[in-house]
Design goal:
The protein is built from 1 helix and 10 strands. With 118 residues, the chain is α/β, with parallel strands linked by helices. It has a single domain, classed as Sandwich (Immunoglobulin-like).
Length: 118
């Protein structure tokens, strides 16, 4: 009985870490390359993207996850709500932005990313 409780607590801890605490540290600079964001296995890869202030940008999303939550990406600061087709690359155009951090996520906020404008 104790072993079952310990396993249960470990599984609860893993769920909390995966959905709320895990933050990929890698940031990609889009000034030197075209960026494709892969939507798969509950994450955006890369999840942190650096761009230059005052420039319009296009981000390509490639959805490989069949989850219904992965089907939509939201940029709340810009009121952008786009559907992502499965296994097809889709470009999302963003306006020029002042410096700051702008989150993007799925409707349930299980997939999270940040656009860092400098």
């Amino acid at each position: 009985m104790i072993i079952i409780n310990v396993i249960g607590f470990v599984l609860i801890g893993l769920v909390i870490w995966w959905f709320w605490l895990y933050k990929p540290a890698k940031a990609v600079d889009t000034s030197t390359e075209n960026i494709t964001i892969i939507v798969n296995n509950g994450i955006y890869q890369p999840a942190k993207i650096k761009v230059e202030a005052g420039k319009e940008i296009a981000l390509k999303f490639l959805r490989k996850d069949g989850s219904p939550c992965a089907a939509t990406v939201l940029f709340p600061e810009f009121e952008i709500n786009e559907e992502l087709p499965l296994d097809i690359s889709k470009s999302i155009f963003l306006p020029s932005m002042p410096p700051g951090e702008y989150p993007f996520h799925c409707p349930m906020k299980m997939y999270n990313g940040t656009l860092v404008v400098k």
